[in-house]
Amino acid sequence: MTDLDTALRDLAPLGVLIGWRRIAEGDEGALNRGEISATNLSVRRASGAVRIVARELLRAPDLAIPKGEGGEPIWPRMVVGSLAHDDEIAIAATANAEDYEAIGIDIERAEPLVAETFALVVTDRERAMIGDDAMKATLLFAVKEAVYKAAYPLDRVFLEFADIEVDLDQGVAATKPGRSLTVRYATTLSHVVALAYA
């Protein structure tokens, strides 16, 4: 069991399944027709990898998971879920739609957020809580990405980072349109993983 396995096991609330895999040569071959239109090999490979993980979680090896108009994955009826990847790791989260309205997940390298991005991601209120801690800013980045992925299918509103306020201590996030979501996160030596759900 890796650090990431342990982190994800502790991250998942009751009823949420989270899985991951290292992106590998050939994962692009897992894409079904119509799932993604990108021609870039690394994008196709990562997109195939996250779908391999999602299909394993759902025990549906032939399931197609196409993208919606906003780039969100289209799940089967009675399933909510989310997909994410960096350049190395593909990760997916799924749950029963009777238990959860929406789920968002994100994974980022556990590296300090660069100053230019820090200013875009962190609101004044959040800055008062985290100060100049660039690692906590990376965590906020991941949490806000997860929140967006959970909120967009519900509200169909494009959110900037400033449209999401996160309270890491309370484990909640609020969006500009007025939606509140629960947030959880886990860190390993190499990665930060964030989960948001309603």
Automatic annotation (TrEMBL):
Biological role: Involved in the biosynthesis of the siderophore enterobactin (enterochelin), which is a macrocyclic trimeric lactone of N-(2,3-dihydroxybenzoyl)-serine. The serine trilactone serves as a scaffolding for the three catechol functionalities that provide hexadentate coordination for the tightly ligated iron(2+) atoms.
Species the sequence originates in: Variibacter gotjawalensis
GO annotation, biological process: enterobactin biosynthetic process
This protein's name: Enterobactin synthase component D
Residues annotated for Mg(2+) binding in this entry: D106, I107, E108
Domain 4'-phosphopantetheinyl transferase N-terminal, first and last residues per copy: 38-95
One annotated GO molecular function: holo-[acyl-carrier-protein] synthase activity
Subunit comment: EntB, EntD, EntE, and EntF form a multienzyme complex called enterobactin synthase.
Stated family: Belongs to the P-Pant transferase superfamily. EntD family.
Gene3D superfamilies on file: 4'-phosphopantetheinyl transferase domain
The reaction(s) this protein catalyses: apo-[aryl-carrier protein] + CoA = holo-[aryl-carrier protein] + adenosine 3',5'-bisphosphate + H(+); apo-[peptidyl-carrier protein] + CoA = holo-[peptidyl-carrier protein] + adenosine 3',5'-bisphosphate + H(+)
GO CC field: enterobactin synthetase complex; plasma membrane
Entries under InterPro entries matching the protein: 4-PPantetheinyl_Trfase_dom, 4-PPantetheinyl_Trfase_dom_sf, 4PPT_N, Enbac_synth_compD-like
Keywords: Enterobactin biosynthesis, Magnesium, Metal-binding, Transferase
Lineage of the organism: Bacteria, Pseudomonadati, Pseudomonadota, Alphaproteobacteria, Hyphomicrobiales
Sites where the protein binds CoA: R51, D106, E145, K149, L159
Recorded metabolic or biological pathway in which this protein acts: Siderophore biosynthesis; enterobactin biosynthesis
Alphabetized SUPFAM superfamilies for the sequence: 4'-phosphopantetheinyl transferase (SSF56214)
Cofactors that this protein relies on: Mg(2+)
Residue ranges constituting the 4'-phosphopantetheinyl transferase domain according to the UniProt record: 102-173
